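Recap from last week: sequence in, structure out.
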Amino acid sequence: MVRHIVMFKLKEFASPDEKQAKMREIKNALESLAGPINILRSIRVDFNINPSETWDLILTTELDTLNDVRTYAEHPEHVAVSKNLIAPVKADRACVDYEVWN
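Predicted structure tokens:
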């Protein structure tokens, strides 16, 4: 199994409430991909609670293979969320993919 983790730093917002609303919108959109993208074993979005750290959101997905990660990344519904919802507010992104050994 492959764990695909992506961290996002968001741009500045007019208010903390506006930022939280956008983060919830992103979380809901990404987590809703579990239905249409059936190769996802799991998908979860969490919020960083430590304001002294760089990253705002962390996406954790589990898939069977690295090829499935690429398929997920290229899926039209994932691309739509990335392009229309995340890209306009993204300041930075970091990613790691690793094999989970049981």
